[in-house]
Design a protein that fits this description.
The protein has one domain (2-219): Glycerol uptake facilitator protein (Up-down Bundle). Helix content is 74%, strand content 0%. It has 225 residues and is mostly helical.
């Protein structure tokens, strides 16, 4: 149960801080700036992995959890609970933002600026980069010290360059919650298919690239943590 509570709290804080930065930036005519929004997402992920990674593995993202199942590092039995906890945490964050800022139209929902295909490809690539980084850090001898800053930095970097086009979701829970609460569901499929397919693609590549890593072989059937 501690693992699920950790995933819920971590996802709540990431979505509340990240999408809250988008909402407040809109309401203050750009006081936070796109750079500030990207930093908010990256820093919140960094802190949550540091805070809860030792309890649950610090996923806070259904795409990451599903990829960890495919890697054999999260038991399938735990997967529904992880997804439910992440979704619940994200929804609570969006409902709270709706209460605080009732007249904001999107609550930070991810909406493509260009074509749907453009954003789909971007989200696939972002999901792939994020997950290959997670796998690489998890199988490094210094994984405990590398994971939080590396993944937080990676998310901030991806949000910086892709956020203005696709929203740089990388996370189905982060996109689902504000879309449901604000009613902007038209493009939600992009932010499910893209990140999940990208993360699973990273698992396939990692099995080739890291196949000789003894840590990968040793941990292949273990759960996280």
């Amino acid at each position: 149960m501690n693992r699920l509570v950790s995933e819920g709290i971590g996802t709540f804080i990431i979505v509340f801080a990240g999408t809250g930065a988008i909402v407040i930036n809109d309401l203050t005519q750009g006081a936070i700036t796109p750079v500030g929004i990207a930093l908010t997402f990256g820093l919140s992920v960094f802190v949550m992995i540091q805070s809860f990674g030792w309890v649950s593995g610090g996923h806070f993202n259904p795409a990451v959890s599903l990829a960890m199942v495919a890697m054999g590092k999260l038991e399938l039995l735990w997967a529904p609970g992880y997804l439910l906890a992440q979704g619940t945490g994200a929804l609570l964050a969006s409902f709270l933002l709706k209460y605080l800022f009732p007249f904001h139209p999107t609550l930070g929902a991810t909406v493509p600026i260009g074509s749907e295909m453009q954003s789909l490809i971007l989200e696939f690539i972002l999901g792939f980069i994020l997950m290959i980084s997670v796998i690489g850090c998890c199988n490094s001898p210094d994984s405990a010290t590398l994971l939080a800053p590396a993944i937080g930095g990676m998310i901030g970097m991806e949000a910086l360059f892709a956020g203005p086009i696709s929203g740089a979701s990388m996370n189905p829970a982060r996109s689902l919650a504000p879309a449901l609460v604000s009613g902007h569901l038209n493009f939600l499929w992009i932010y499910f298919v893209g990140p999940i397919a990208g993360a699973l693609g990273a698992v396939f590549v990692a099995r080739c690239v890291f196949k000789d890593n003894p840590r990968l072989k040793a941990n292949a059937g273990e759960s996280i943590p």
